[in-house]
Design brief:
Amino acid/polyamine transporter I, mainly alpha
């Protein structure tokens, strides 16, 4: 293994586990009651299915580009190589902003979820920030979780991968149990008609496409972790698409089961959604297992994002867009130890702000990810004209389908930034978060020292430096 290369320890199933589990979060399982109430069961489930298809369109761009550039940082490598240094930094900085916001949110959410069954988590208040009281048990739980994942990751990607596989199997197993009981003991009459009588069905579905696409955020984890994978590049690319379809199907099946087990109009408005639905339908054990999905979803998302964020840091550091020391690979374990330490420190620092403050960071993360999706699709289209021989060498051609997903991502961003929509950011705090993150990024960018472009490509492309750069030079000539 080269000194600057990550150790290839992740197999196909582990990569799928990391990808799918990185997408499937925690809140959807207990907030679906309020979404059923607003959009109808059909609006949420069918809208999420449509959002999944749009995300899969974008994933085709990821698949093509990952097959060509299976290196740590995924989107950073694509953007830097095809669009240039500035866009490479923008892609990486947006991803770091989105991922560390989620990590910090999970830092506090872990203890908040435990509070459902351990009331003591709400005791010993330490301070109040942004309307949310932070307690000592919640801080300790978040700190312990973050440090655990740091030590697992610094010892090798395989350890984190093995844990993710175990959690993934448990997550899928519980989801299947809910589906079997929900569809078997329930009735289609509880689900149909899936809309309120006075609802516009088509508009309800379309309105949920926007949050539905944000549910799929994180599928780029596989592209980001491609350098850790012990698989052919083409197969890694296809796994990106598979991740989206598997995660979206899991969401829809489990949500539909809660609309079959009892009339969805009764589930609508339930404080804990699916958890309460199965409990009140006479299956309290499954209600508890539905709560377990929330915990598992949080743990798996945390682990996947933790690993991915460190790889993005590595990619930026390899080309001096962040300090070079963050690109160092531990010679014994083949892991980015300094990058992992940085991600740990940022997660803890932001996590200490508490759940109230972190909601604002989390809301802006959807905009960052939407912009990255658009950038990746732009890379795919630019590849054909800028590097035609490299384009012809790609074994997977995404075509024009990803453009559909890019338009959907643009819609998400417009609805979030445009005041007065049901997706608008909160003024002025959340707009302020966007501006501050952009300013900090600009400082890092203008302080960084550019290096020779060919040297930068060789650092980014690593083991492909003997073939791909030659093709890039030929195309440029």
């Amino acid at each position: 293994m080269a000194a600057d290369q990550l150790k290839k320890e992740l197999g196909m199933f582990t990569l799928i586990a990391l990808g799918v589990s990185g997408v499937v979060g925690s809140s959807w399982i207990y907030t679906n009651g309020s979404f059923f109430e607003e959009y109808g069961a059909g609006g949420m489930i069918f809208g999420l299915a449509l959002g999944t298809l749009l995300a899969a369109c974008v994933a085709l761009s990821y698949a093509q580009l990952t097959g060509l550039f299976p290196r740590a940082g995924g989107e950073v490598v694509f953007s830097f190589t095809i669009l240039g240094r500035t866009w490479g930094f923008i892609a990486g900085w947006l991803l770091i902003g989105a991922y560390v916001s989620s990590l910090a949110f999970y830092f506090t959410s872990f203890g908040v979820l435990l509070e459902f069954y351990i009331p003591a988590m709400d005791e010993i208040p330490v301070y109040t920030l942004a309307g949310s009281t932070v307690t000592l048990p919640i801080l300790v739980a978040g700190l312990a979780l973050t440090l655990l994942f740091y030590f697992l990751n610094v010892r090798g990607a395989s350890l984190g991968g093995q844990l993710q596989v175990i959690l993934f199997i448990a997550l899928i197993g519980i989801g299947l149990a809910l589906a079997v009981v929900g569809f078997g003991a329930g009735s289609v009459d509880n689900f149909w008609p899936p809309f309120y009588e006075d609802q516009n069905a088509a508009m309800s579905v379309l309105r949920f496409v926007v949050p539905g696409m944000t549910y799929m955020a994180g599928f780029g984890l596989i592209a980001t972790l491609a350098e850790d994978a012990n698989l052919p590049p083409k197969k890694i690319g296809w796994l990106v698409v598979a991740t989206v379809l598997i995660a979206g199907s899991f969401y829809c099946i489990v949500l539909a089961s809660s609309a079959f087990i009892m009339p969805w109009q009764e589930v609508a408005g339930m404080e804990q959604g699916t958890i309460t639905a199965f409990t009140e339908a006479g299956f309290p054990v499954l209600g508890t297992l539905a709560f377990a999905i929330a915990i598992l979803g949080l743990l798996t998302s945390f682990l996947g994002l933790f690993m991915a964020t460190s790889r993005i840091v590595v990619a930026l550091a390899r080309v001096n867009l962040l300090p070079e020391r963050f690109a160092e690979i531990d010679p014994k374990h083949g892991t980015p130890k300094n990058a992992l330490m940085l991600v740990t420190a940022i997660t803890i620092a932001l996590g200490l702000l508490g759940r109230g403050a972190m909601v604002s960071f989390l809301e802006t993360g959807g905009i960052y990810l939407g912009l990255v999706w658009i950038l990746v699709v732009a890379c795919q289209f630019r590849l054909k004209t800028k590097y035609p021989s490299l384009y012809e060498a790609s074994k997977l051609k995404a075509g024009f389908v990803p453009l559909i997903g890019a338009v959907g991502a643009a819609l998400v961003i417009i609805l979030a930034l445009w005041p007065g929509t049901n997706m608008s950011l909160a003024w002025p705090l959340e707009y302020g978060v966007l501006i501050v993150w952009a300013v900090i990024g600009a400082v890092f960018y203008f302080m960084s020292k550019p290096i020779d472009h060919e040297v930068a490509l060789e650092r980014l492309l690593g083991e492909h430096k003997e073939s791909l750069p030659r093709q890039l030079k030929e195309d440029a000539a």
